[in-house]
Structure formats: C-alpha cells, structure tokens
Design goal:
Elements: H1 12-25, H2 38-50, E1 60-62, E2 68-81, E3 87-98, E4 101-103, H3 106-116, E5 119-120, H4 122-137, E6 142-150, H5 151-154, E7 163-169, H6 172-175, H7 177-192
Parallel strand pairs: 2-5
Antiparallel strand pairs: 1-4, 2-3, 3-6, 6-7
Helix pairs in contact: 1-2, 3-4
Bound molecules: zinc ion.
The site of zinc ion has 6 residues, from loops.
C-alpha cells in the first residue's frame, strides 16, 4: 500500500506555461509542431519525478539473528543535480549491521529511489539514505556508498566524463577495519557479477 510520506508538490498547471515561456526565451517557437505538446509533457514529467511514490518504506521485522551485516549493492538511481537541473545516475550500496530490527529487502531500493527523486547533490543523497536506514533499523553501524556520473560534468563545463564517489560510514564501518573490508569485498563482488 502506498504511503503519503511525500505529498504531491508539483503544480502541473503552473509548470506547463512556465515551460512554454522557457521555450520562447530559448528562441524557439512553442507553437511549432514538435513543441506544441512539450510544455504539458514536461510538466507531467516533473510531477512524475518529484511526486514519486516509493511505496511502503517502514516494514521492519524483529531480528532473528543479531549482529549480522546486511548489504544490498548496485541499486541504480537517477536524480537531478540541483545546481544545473541536469541528471545524474548513481549506483548505491547500502549496508547495516542488524541488531534487533531487520529491514525488508525491497525497502533498500525504495528508500534509495525516494531520496533520488528530488533536486539533489550526491553527498546529500547518500546522507539522506543513511539517516533513513538508521532510523528504521535503529542500527548504529550503517554504510552507504555511491558511485555516480553527473551530466553537469559530462555535458557542460569541462565536458569530461567523471565518476564521483561518496560514502557515509558509521559505527563499525567507520571504526572497525574488518567490517569495512567485508563491506568493500561485497561491493567488488557485486561489481564483478
Ligand atoms: Zn551540477
């Protein structure tokens, strides 16, 4: 059942005329064939992106086994850079050490997508996911690692394809080299698969 964690915020009826104005300001004729439906199409896309419904996020189970590392790797999300409104994708790995609450597996991807479906920077994307995983699982040890390509680097400015890496490591992932090594070995196995 869908939740209403994120209220709908996009006013499609306001966005469409703004897109039409934008087309005019770009020197285009918004009434020409190819563009006639573009303002409404773009406004609906913004609604689809921002008003994304991640579904139910909060399913947790009482832990059966405690002190296990749980990791889900390679969750591909698309987001929009808030500085340029250009897309970026990121492959997200999420891990936590379960103590007494286990998060349903499908929730990892839903949480990652929920945080991606807004104007973002990769650092805040990673932090937001880590905070939510932490509050749902009440785990002290949480890691979120992201590898992303930003079109604002690839398409504009220096136009150099570049991959950005960012990570949040908390609890044992920060302080215990063994836990960190286990996490990064899972990541590399995921990448090789
Ligand atoms: Zn940017």
């Amino acid at each position: 059942m869908p939740t209403n964690d994120l209220p709908g915020t996009v006013d499609v009826d306001r966005v469409a005329p703004i897109v039409r104005d934008l087309l005019t300001a770009l020197g285009e004729d918004p009434d020409r064939d190819g563009l006639a439906d573009t303002p409404l199409r773009v406004a609906r896309w913004w609604s689809e992106f921002v008003d994304y419904d991640p579904g139910k996020l909060a399913t947790t189970f009482e832990g059966v086994e405690i002190d296990q590392m749980v990791a889900v790797t390679g969750i591909r999300v698309w987001s929009l850079c808030e500085h340029h409104l250009l897309p970026f994708w990121a492959d997200i790995d999420i891990a936590y050490i379960a103590t007494d609450r286990i998060l349903g597996l499908s929730k990892f991807a839903r949480i990652a997508h929920q945080h991606a479906h807004r104007l973002q920077v990769q650092e805040r994307l990673v932090t937001g996911i880590a905070d939510q995983i932490q509050s749902l699982t009440e785990a002290e040890s949480v890691a979120v690692v992201a590898t992303g390509e930003h079109l604002c680097m690839t398409m504009r400015g220096i136009q150099a394809p570049a991959i950005m890496h960012s990570s949040i490591l908390r609890g044992l992932f920060k302080h215990d080299p063994a836990a960190r090594a286990e996490l990064f070995s899972l990541r590399s196995r995921g990448a090789a698969a």
